[in-house]
Amino acid sequence: MDLSDLHDQKGKLATFVIQVQYRQNSSWQGQVIWVEENRKEHFRSALELMKLMDNALEERMRQKEAAQSSVS
Predict the structure, then answer these.
(1) What one-character-per-residue DSSP string does 7-64 give?
(2) What global pTM score does this model have?
(3) Low-confidence winner among 24-33, 46-55, 63-72 (lowest mean pLDDT)
């Protein structure tokens, strides 16, 4: 699957592609790609993955709020 295949299947706020490369110490290690920003980050645990995604969503919300403020 190519990233271009995901354009029809994007999320409302953000779309993430998660590739789990290893499963060690009862957790996941791998990489996550934020499709809209074409940013790739590596994670060492499921918790770190959730934090990366949460930070991306917070950033997206700030961008939307800033765009709405500049329009008003």
Answers:
(1) GGG--SS--EEEEEEEEETTEEEEEEEETTTTEEEEESSHHHHHHHHHHHHHHHHHHH
(2) 0.79
(3) 63-72
